[in-house]
Amino acid sequence: MVPMSPQSSRYRWFVVIIFFFFMLLHQTDKLMIGSLQVQISETFGLDDFRWGLVNSGALAVSTILYPLWGYLYDRYARVKLLALASFIWGATTWLNAIVRTYTGFLITRASTGVDDSSYPGIFTLIADYFGPDLRGKVYGILQLAQPLGFLAGLILGQMVAPMIGGWRSVFYITGGLGIVVALLIYFGVREMPRGKAEPEFENMPEMATFRFSWAEAREIFRKRTMWFIFLQGFAGVFPWNVITFFFFGYLETERGYDSNAIIGTMAPVILILAAGYFVGGYLGDLLFQHTKKGRILISSAGVLLGAIFIYLAMTTPLDRPTQFFIFMCLTAIFMPLSSANVIATVYDVTVPEVRSTAQAIEYFIENSGAVAAPALTGALIVSSGNRTFAILSICVIAWILCFLFYLGALFTIERDTNALRAQMAARAKAM
């Protein structure tokens, strides 16, 4: 039985579990399409460019809606909005399975991007359940859902779909689960006062209500650290989208892997990737307790080493699958180290009442670049005739740029973090 008090440790972790399953199933639904590229392309007769447009459409919709979702999460009850987002996910996935033309598929797939903008509500609500010293680890646990969802999508796409009637059938399954999760969130999760978990308000019997303020929203852009976070976000999502939407096709066409070889190679890689999210959050929290630069240091190391090892992997000769597998495992260790730390860093420098907005702006900026990634990659493959060159070029260049932006953040993070702590202390004193 779930404890009645929303402040109890058991209840806090119950909330984490619900959101973990929301993200796991949502990521499965979202990322599964990458493993279905060949099946869907055969259904509608798509080339790489038209396939890229399908995925860019959903990214474009989610990008446009990020500022709106962020604003709504800071103004209204996040739990009800998250339940609504989950319902939308289920309904739009069903529509995507029903249509029978490429135009219909393109439009309905774009509509699935409406709920992809929902994560700022999850992360800010969790920030009000857990303090700064724990957030990196908790975000790392939640973000395990992304690679595990990727793996689940791989299994559904490569193994289950052919057994149950094709890709449309698995869309019906994941869409239905979205509606079930909507009910779990609506009835099982409770709202928490914004700022409740900040250390300055610890043990206070009552909390002041912090409401969205346009003045505080404008302060987001005056924090130098956020500018570097925005820049790395713009570049950093390119590799993730390229790998998500084109890597399975690369394994099939360039390396000649069949379904069993793809699963045998990618399943361990994805599990290692999953562990990297938690390891990154754990190391970020650990170093953060000693230096405010800790999260940025972990992030910069992750993107640099990720670029090195993906280059070594994709330039490995085709007759050396074991070497390719080892380098992909090493890539997977370092790729996700920055993810939980970026989210925690946003909350280390922004006030509670505009954190959803701050993160939504960050996602808007990064997706503004990422929305072009699938179409750009598809066009580059078609024009160059070289899938390896297209994927590798975008990934390496993007991660090197991220490394440079993180170096800039090392010079600003301490000042911006200390400024927030001083602001929270002044509020606590005034209560």
Major sheet: none
Q: Approximately how much helix is present in the residues?
A: over 70%
CATH class (first level) name: Mainly Alpha
Q: Distance N terminus to C terminus?
A: 35 Å
Compute the number of helices: 19
CATH topology: the name is Growth Hormone, Chain: A
Tell me what portion of residues adopts beta-strand conformation.
under 5%
In short:
78% of the residues lie in helices and 0% in strands. The protein has 431 residues and is mainly alpha-helical. It has a single domain (9-194, 215-430), classed as Growth Hormone, Chain: A.
What does this protein look like?
With 431 residues, the protein is mainly alpha-helical. The protein has one domain: Up-down Bundle (Growth Hormone, Chain: A). 78% of the residues lie in helices and 0% in strands. It is built from 19 helices and no strands. The chain has helices at residues 9-35, 37-44, 48-75, 78-98, 102-111, 119-127, 132-143, 145-163, 167-188, 214-219, 224-253, 259-288, 294-314, 321-334, 339-349, 355-370, 373-384, 387-409, 413-430. Helix 3 (48-75) packs parallel to helix 5 and helix 6 runs antiparallel to helix 16. The longest helix has 30 residues, at 224-253. The radius of gyration is 21 Å and the shape is globular. The two termini are 35 Å apart. The mean pLDDT is 88.
What is the element layout, followed by pairings?
Layout lengths: L8 H27 L1 H8 L3 H28 L2 H21 L3 H10 L7 H9 L4 H12 L1 H19 L3 H22 L25 H6 L4 H30 L5 H30 L5 H21 L6 H14 L4 H11 L5 H16 L2 H12 L2 H23 L3 H18 L1
